[in-house]
Amino acid sequence: MQAMSDDLPAWAVRLRAERRNRLWSQREMARRLVEAADEDIRPRLPSRETMIRRIKAYEAGHNRPGDPYRVLYARAFGLSEAELFRESADVSSHGSDVIDLVAWVEQTNVGDGTIGMLAEETQRLGESHAHVPPSRVLSDVVRLERHTRALLSGGRQRLRQTRELFRIEADLLAHACILFGDLHRNGPALSHGTAAAMCADEAGSSPAAALSAQAKTERWRGRFAASADLARRGYECSPPTQLRVLLASQEANAAGLLGDRVRAREALQRAEEAVQGGLSQDSGVSPWSCPRPRQALYALSVALQAGNPEAALQAARVAESAWASGDPRVPATWAQIRFGAANAYAMLGDLHGAAEQIEPVMSMPPEFRMSTVTNYLVELDARLDDRRFHGSGAAATLREQIRDFTSAALSAVGAGEDA
Questions:
Q1: Among 384, 374, 382, which Cα is nearest to 183's?
Q2: Residue 142: is its pLDDT beyond 70?
Q3: Which run of H or of E encompasses 26?
Q4: Contacts of 418 (CB under 8 A, 6+ apart)
Q5: Where is pLDDT greater, at 312 or 13?
Q6: Residue 241, SS3 per DSSP
Q7: Do residues 84 and 74 touch, judged by C-beta distance below 8 A?
Q8: With bands split at pLDDT 50, 70 and 90, how would you rate the model's confidence at 110?
Q9: Global confidence as pTM
Q10: Which of 20, 72, 130, 147 is least crowded, fewest Cβ atoms below 10 Å from its Cβ?
Q11: pLDDT (tens digit, 9 = 90+) per residue, 181-196?
């Protein structure tokens, strides 16, 4: 990643950071600027290639945007011109500005209709999570979060409306935390997760979703004890929804990674008790859903950690049965079940079984190969490096497939940057 010079103008640093925070390439930035133009401006814009050259020049600090580019940038980013082109530099590469929600003055001007539309769009983005590449969802989540924050910062609403805006802001920040983690960007994930918990507190609502997002981030950072404790805190304050099942399952997974099998079994039991106790249903495809296949995935992971491949394969069969019964097939969950089962077969020394499991997933579009998916292949590659597989042609073929799959995944994550 190219380091930014300390002597760049603040607005140049900000233009690049705002684009990168949304995971837009410079070509995508040009497209967004065209979309932001009205009928009077659009005919006067140059070719796409010329606009890309201008964007590069702006971000390098060679030229300062003038009319109409200042207004187009402001529209594309959802920011005011004054905020975007101010001279002082306060942009963080980890997006720490998301928690700097400025003080608001108690006035009324934001209608309930606007807030209702924000809530509906937030829910829609959550339900697109499973079937749209994370980089695209993140771009829309960040844009909506900035719009919500602008309303909060304006302070032109009643106290009741302010709390509802904080609740929406908390949901968007928690969702962004999950997406940044899926894209291997733990720094922004941490800051967004922390901000989500703060906003939930301001809203007077449960921080369970924020704690779930934070638990996931800490797991990828290798802080398994912190992850388990965050998930348990979330479970204790979660409403009776599928999120409660998810949090218990997350605690089980983190405890299993710690080697605490007793705690892992107890957490899995809590997840099952939550299901049996009756829960309000949701779409089954949001980041906070935990239908039977996803619950089975956590049981599979715990079984692998405990060195029990038979139990892992049984969990995979539970997931397959649930899909056959009509549960929504989320691509990431399906891929993880397959790769988890491949790990189980490798533990049993059955490389033919492992190859059968991963073969259907090899054509998965690279933009869906998020870290939660590829980590199972990292584990499988480590298992195939075992001495008993040395000299095995089947093992060598599997490892080559793994390298190709993960290489394409990393290329997809980096596609938001231009050379």
A1: 374
A2: yes
A3: helix 26-36
A4: 25, 26, 27, 56
A5: 312
A6: strand
A7: yes
A8: low
A9: 0.71
A10: 147
A11: 988 888 999 999 999 9
The C-alpha atoms of residue 292 and residue 274 are separated, in whole angstroms, by: 12
Q: DSSP labels for 55-116?
A: HHHHHTTSS---TTHHHHHHHHHT--HHHHT-SS----TT-GGGG-------B----HHHHH
CA gap 130, 149 in Å, rounded: 25
Is the CATH number of domain 10-91 1.10.260?
yes
pLDDT beyond 50 at 104: no
Strand, helix or coil for residue 370:
coil
Q: What pLDDT digit, counting tens, does each position of 24-71 carry?
A: 888 889 999 998 888 888 888 999 889 999 999 998 888 889 888 998
User: Residue 5 pLDDT more than 60?
Assistant: no
* Mean model confidence pLDDT for the chain: 86
- Distance (Å, rounded) from C-alpha 26 to C-alpha 32? 10
The residue whose two tokens read 């807030």 is 115
For residues 172-194, b (16+ Cβ closer than 10 Å) or e, as one string?
bbbbbbbbbbbbebbebbbbbbb
Q: How is 274-311 classified by DSSP, letter by letter?
A: HHHT--B---S-STT---HHHHHHHHHHHHHHTT-HHH
Peptide bond connecting 240 to the previous residue in cis, omega within 30 degrees of 0: no
**Annotated domain spans of the chain:** 10-91, 94-205
The dihedral formed by the CA atoms of 39, 42, 43 and 44, expressed in degrees to the nearest 10: 130
80 near 74, Cβ under 8 Å? yes
Distance CA 374, CA 354 (A): 15
Question: Token pair of 38, please?
Answer: 């009205």
Query: DSSP labels for 30-46?
Result: HHHHHHH--TTTGGG--
Q: How many CB atoms lie within 10 A of CB 248?
A: 28
CA 204 to chain centroid, in Å, comes to 24
